[in-house]
Known about the structure:
Blueprint: E1 6-11, E2 14-19, H1 30-45, E3 51-56, E4 60-62, H2 67-71, H3 89-94, E5 100-104, E6 107-109, H4 113-116, E7 121-124, E8 129-131, H5 142-148, H6 154-163, E9 167-168, H7 169-175, E10 180-181, H8 186-195, H9 199-212, H10 217-232, H11 235-246
Parallel strand pairs: 2-3, 3-5, 4-6, 5-7, 6-8, 7-10
Antiparallel strand pairs: 1-2, 8-9
Helix pairs in contact: 9-10
Amino acid sequence: xxxxxIKTSIEQHIFKLTLARPExxxxxxxxxxxxxxxxxxxxNKNKTVRLVLINAEGPVFCAGMDMKTFENPEFDxxxxxxxxxxxxxxxxxxxxNKPSIAIVEGDVIAGGFLIILECTYILAxxxxxxxxxxxxxxxxxFQVLASLIKYIxxxxxxxxxxxxxxxxxxxxxxxxxxYDFLEGDKTNELMKAIISNAPKAIYxxxxxxKKLGNLAEKDKLPYLLQALEDLKKTRDSKEGMAAFFExxxxxxxxx
Length: 255
C-alpha cells in the first residue's frame, strides 16, 4: 500500500507506522488521518502482528492539525486508494486491538497528543517537549482533554489545557503521561516482553477493556467470567498451559 504521509513496515511481529511529513512538522491532514486509520486496521487484521510502533520523521513528532488544510481541503493531497471518511485522529488510533508503543523523539504539540495518548505505552526522548497551545489561538483542545483524563487527574489535565505551558519529558513522566525514557535497551526490552506473550490473550484483554465501558456495573463480572471461559477454549490458552507444565517456550499461533 502506497501512502502519502505515512510509512509502514512489518518485521518480527512488529508493525511500524511512521509519520512521514517532516517538512510540515508531521501536522496531520484529513488524508493523513485516513491513512493512519487504514494502516491501523491493516495491523489489526494481520495475525502475525503482535505490537504496533508509532514514530515520526524529523525533529517534531507531531505539531497537531494542519489548520490550513482542514479549512481548505484543496490543500490536501488525496490518496486514490483510500476513501476519506470523517474520522478523528483519536478514533483512528483508538481502533488498535493490539499493544502499541509511541516512540517520541521530538516535540508533541496540540493534536499530536491524540496519537500518543491512544497508545499503550509512551517512550520519550528526554529532550522532547509537550504543549497544548490551542487557547493561545482562541480554541480549546477538547479531544485531547478527553484523552488526557484517562492518564492524569482532571485538574492537572485542565491545567495543561488552560495555561498552554510547555512541559518536559521528565515532567510528563512525573504526571504519568510518559511511561519511560528512550535510553539504553529499554525499548527493545519492552518490545520483547510484549511479543513473547500470548497474542490471543492480549487481544482478548483489549477487547474486554473496550466493552467494559459500555456495560452496567451488574453486567461486568458475568461478562469477564465468560470472557475467561471463552479464552480457555482457545488454542493459545491450551498451548500456554502445556508449555508451562512442560517447562518450554510456548509456540503462539494467535488462535
